[in-house]
Design goal:
alpha+beta; Rossmann fold; 6-stranded antiparallel barrel; 5-stranded mixed sheet; 11 strands
Length: 231
């Protein structure tokens, strides 16, 4: 049963590269060397700040994700992200360390994108502009409500991404759209945007009228553009 689960997981990784342009392309590479938490890749990711999944081959057609890394330099130098590799109750805990020769997918799950937008029109424009698997903000809003949090932070976006297999967060700011890699916590792309509403729905566009703030109830309030500008 364990082998079936791990092989099924691997099959979800074998997706083609993303379209060139605003979204970085997926990169398939391998580990050249390992020194503690420092990883050197044989081929660098196209953008520093991108995260990736490390895959170990156990033999007998059994492979599994063992670690996540984030690139820290344009030469392929990376850091190990050891906590919460993949959150899934049905999968076993994997404690295999990163080893020379392990395969690496840079931009793992980058086709799965959560959008934080100021209103419905902007959200629709974004999702119609690219062919991605869009994670609706309603799901993130429900997650925040269950967690007792009132607005997005890099910490809860990272936890949400690991739990729901999100690769990128597309954030519409006041004068620019950015891509946040929630695993590394880094902005990896930016482009200018225009014709945005003067005021955005807080904390972001969703179908709910309000988001309950914290464990003690009450609706969250604030400025959308100020909030996303701080992410």
């Amino acid at each position: 049963m364990r082998k079936v689960a791990l092989i099924s997981l691997l099959s979800s990784l074998l997706t083609g590269p993303l379209l060139a342009g605003f979204f970085p392309q997926t990169v398939h590479t391998s580990v050249r060397s390992v020194s503690g938490e420092n990883i050197q890749l044989n081929r660098a990711f196209p953008i520093t700040g991108m995260s990736g999944a490390v895959i170990h081959d156990y033999g007998n057609s059994l492979k599994a994700i063992t670690s996540r890394i984030a690139q820290t330099s344009g030469n392929g130098a990376s850091k190990l992200i050891s906590e919460y590799i993949i959150e899934h109750e049905a999968l076993p805990s994997i404690k295999t360390s990163v080893q020379k020769g392990d395969k690496v997918i840079g931009g793992y799950l980058y086709k799965n994108v959560l959008v934080l937008a100021p209103d419905a029109d902007t959200y629709a424009k974004v999702t119609k502009s690219y062919s991605k698997t869009w994670i609706h903000p309603d799901l993130f809003a429900l997650y925040l409500s269950v967690e007792g949090e009132s607005k997005p932070t890099k910490e809860n976006l990272s936890h949400f991404a690991k739990k729901y297999q999100v690769g990128l967060v597309y954030i519409v700011r006041k004068d620019a759209a950015v891509l946040l890699d929630p695993i590394s916590g880094k902005i990896i792309a930016k482009k200018s945007v225009s014709n945005l509403p003067a005021k955005g729905q807080f904390p972001f566009y969703m179908h709910f009228e309000k988001l309950e703030s914290g464990w003690f109830g009450g609706s969250a309030s604030g400025n959308y553009y100020n909030m996303v500008g701080a992410l």
